[in-house]
Amino acid sequence: QGQLVDSGGGLVQPGGSLRLSCAASGFTFSSTYMNWVRQAPGKGLEWVSSIYSDGMSTSYADSVKGRFTISRDNAKNMLYLQMNSLKSEDTAVYYCAGIYWGQGTQVTVSS
Predict the structure, then answer these.
(1) Region 76-97: what's the mean pLDDT?
(2) Average pLDDT of the chain, as a whole number
């Protein structure tokens, strides 16, 4: 049974940075197209970013382009999301998702 475990969320001031991590197990992570998806309070799911299995191609929502960077380490079965220049509107629960979904990690951007 595959599993994804998200971590790295927290409270950060506007303009700050966080790095989210997602640990994969129980499936062939290195062959899996992976995503970060978020859900802000009272809103639906929003796609944030995707990365191909080899890490060579990435894509981003316009709302995070230039501020967030997705990456992966297939040797460690890890997915990352580096978030810089955070804004209050980035406050959400962030999920890594592929074949499976992580449990989510809360990111709160507030002064």
Answers:
(1) 98
(2) 97
